[in-house]
């Protein structure tokens, strides 16, 4: 008996080491390299095209740094030239004019950085256009979690487009569960008597809002190893069935970019280098060279890719009940607090409710949803005013 | 020192003369300081006086104390008289016709017997301890340089005649008789020669010989087919007799082997070769109780691993796939269990491991950097015997059974882990659901049909199965079959015919709740037929030649969905086939006594065979589907492409002295099978790929030199080797390559140059209480991936350090025998940390934080060091015990050094997190019980 225990100890020890031998540590930049980063996709959609120019930052201060005051323009071999100007808010460079990429025209991105160095991309052309056939939600279980998966189907009859990248913009309706018609304010506070008045000013309730979010990260698929250039059931977005965005109406605009093989590869590698790797083995990381080089110094590292991509979009709407899902909870746990203004002591073995009323309104932005002095109902602002975290502007495209 | 005689101890007068001490005597009588001898004059008269009586007389009269052993004096008489002669003169006189010599200081006279008439030393002349070790191979020195000799023995240094400082004679005559130890009959036609063969003699029909030898130290060897070889060092001071007794080879015992090859490292023509004897590694501290011959190999200079838990070896700057690992001549593709923590070779059935790092014999081919030739023991043909062990993770049992007495036997070994059973009984939830099991089994049958014909066959199977996450199960197995038939055509000519087959496959099953359940499989099979012939053309020329042909068949990947709900599409990558054939010849040519060369040439040819389709890519463009200009289809067994070429295997030795040699070698190797791995270390999911239209074979040229020196009396062996290796078409991958289930794998591959160079130093002490070895190497391994196309360049097309480039590597293995039963052992290893690609900045792309990596392998992880200690207890040595036991208690990583194995960086929720992995970051104690019957 004793012996077995010892064996167990040794073995579990061993396995714990095996399993628990990976530990996080603080990264420090050993040898920081300030590298120009370019993210530029121009499309056949007529719009103000966008180019992101930034620089690497140290690991201690992650997030990169915007490259200000660069000169950015695109040259087309049909003689066109498009100048870009920096958007002072986002730091992105936006084309001065609206334009769409045309087929069979070569485009080259040029950047003169703020420190006077010149960069140029390889010439790119627009790939084949492939329309999205279908975007549809389905209830599935992924990694043990039930939820809604939005799939995309696409088919390219020409057989030329094989590489696809997806982005989405999701917009969802929000209905505040505890709307209020007042603006509450604490006035006439007397610190001696600890008395105050709650001044209520009527207001338009903010009940319905619409939030829009842009996808982040890289989603790609390729059909090069399939018999047909058919994208089938590509999972674009997964939503946990308890995700509050599904509480009212949900809409997703899926954008499909047809990429060149070079662009596809570049995005794929960037994506893979940032993904989880297995415990005992390690993939080969390294510097990924894109299609942008420094003029005169080909060995200078430049991170980035300039691509011309054909885009196709499709928007769908759905509600949780359409999919037979229960109502998901609200974004936060709405906690309506009943206040008796007259309770101003903790001696009754219950909180000082008058104190709560004051601090919650003053410091935590709690909203008064019901008032009949000395009784009040207060709730978190998110539950009362949807504009607290969203917008009451109904998007033009919105269909109820 | 035994029976010493002394009677008188008066102090005598002034020392007058000084005499130089002879170096070799220091070893025998280290404490004695010699001043000279007494000037006292004495008068004595001897007439047929027994020598002993005479000496006692001198002792009494001179007042000096005499030390000697009475047995030296027996049956010797002296007739001499001296009148007022100095003691020196008296002693010279009485010892004139004897083999005795003497040294004295002002108080004492030491008699030395300098002429021993047979090869056995007077009992007790040396410490008992040494005597024991001589025949018992219990020392932990488990490696020796390669030697082709089957059986030999090295005798103790002896001296003949007595030293006479005034001698002017340069040569003396040594005569004697050589007898067969068993029959006491003379051994005829035996040659006795100096190692350099400048002086030799041959015994007559009665075993008598006469040999002329120069004054001083001579190294003799005997040579006669069918008898053991004896190495005998003699110091010749005068004429004398030297009798030897030999045993017949057939009865030579294994145990003798180690002591015998002490000169082989100096004398062979092979550079960079090492033999590891399994029996001798048993005292080395173990990790989890497993005696592991391959792990021990990695403690030698020039053989490295990327870290604990990596299954490959990097030999002299070569990649992990460049090692030909043979188990009884069959290739073992994954020689490790459990991701490299244990070797898959059963230690109890393993006889020896020979590693060739530089001079790869011409009979081997197909890998660039090394050959690991593991040979299974032959079973005991006399009686049933066995060996077993119980450790914390595994139990192991081997048994040897004679089938036909003295002719045929079987050896079988099985090893299995009970980790699964223990895991299931654990309370820890995380561990309860994990799975880890492995086993391996081996059977070897050997049958000596008659004197000229031997047959042997080996079957081996190993399987690993484990799951690290609860929804995936990973398994792999090796299966080997080896059949060998040896035939002796004549005394001069031998041959062997081999058939081997190896299969390696792995499987990954993934079953989670989601609808992406799948089963992935990979399989490699190879069969080889090989004929090796040896012909001893003359004393100077020994030829080896032969041919071989090997067929490969690889199923590079198949994925099938599991369950009806799985969205995974079934896919199979086309089978790859290849035929690799070679013809070789080599001549071991002894040009003169000093110069020995081994000139070998191997010509290998490889054909990639259909049925297959292959893409042709446009030149000067990155390989991608866009640059495909043509897709070629090939029919079944149609030749797609052939590669081949000569592989030179040349090495030579030049003796700079009896115990000192210089060697040089040039080696070319070609490799047609490549291991593809997205990991920086070897892992079981790696893919072996054959050369085809788009993948060139790898080629290497290695130049090596070495100096080898033995100090026989101190039992020390030194070697200093240097090498330069140039490799072409090494395989590497584009960053983020997708290797599994890729039809157009070549689009992910890069082929580049490699170069490696280094210096390796090794000192070994094979005997004595404290023994062990110390090795140091400084080496570099560099790779260059250059291309016209920028995307296919790595580090701007300049040389960079390979993943396994660890310049400084220091290892010490020592064993200290406390008593015959108890010993301590220790290992210490220090290595430069291996190179890594480290993040040097952060940036945002596609709305997520990403890291910018440095140039490939620009930085290094912290240095690696580790100390292991062990304590070994041998069971008592009673003869008629049921089983002989051996207990090993060891602690791995005593210092608890947290040696990072890898560092990696992960994007978690848009944030970069850094992780480091270490395998054994705390001391790991183990106790293992071994028994033998």
TrEMBL record, chain A:
Entries under InterPro entries matching the protein: DUF4249
Which Pfam families does its entry note? DUF4249
> At the top level of its lineage, which domain of life is listed?
Bacteria
* Stated name of the protein: Uncharacterized protein DUF4249
TrEMBL record, chain B:
Signal peptide range? none
Q: Name one GO cellular component term.
A: cell outer membrane
Entry superkingdom: Bacteria
Q: List GO BP terms, alphabetically.
A: siderophore transmembrane transport
Transmembrane segment boundaries:
21-38
Please give the InterPro entries that the UniProt record associates with this protein. Answer: Beta-barrel_TonB_sf, CarboxyPept-like_regulatory, Plug_dom, Plug_dom_sf, TonB-dep_rcpt-like
Matching entries from SUPFAM superfamilies are given as: Carboxypeptidase regulatory domain-like, Porins
Annotated TonB-dependent receptor plug domain residues: 290-367
Keywords assigned = Cell outer membrane, Membrane, Receptor, Signal, Transmembrane, Transmembrane beta strand, Transmembrane helix, Transport
**Signal among keywords:** yes
Q: Where in the cell is it found?
A: Cell outer membrane
Molecular functions per Gene Ontology: siderophore uptake transmembrane transporter activity
Topology relative to the lipid bilayer, per the entry, is: Multi-pass membrane protein
Q: Which family does it belong to?
A: Belongs to the TonB-dependent receptor family.
Protein name (record): TonB-dependent receptor-like protein
Starting at the broadest rank, the lineage of the source organism is:
Bacteria, Pseudomonadati, Bacteroidota, Flavobacteriia, Flavobacteriales
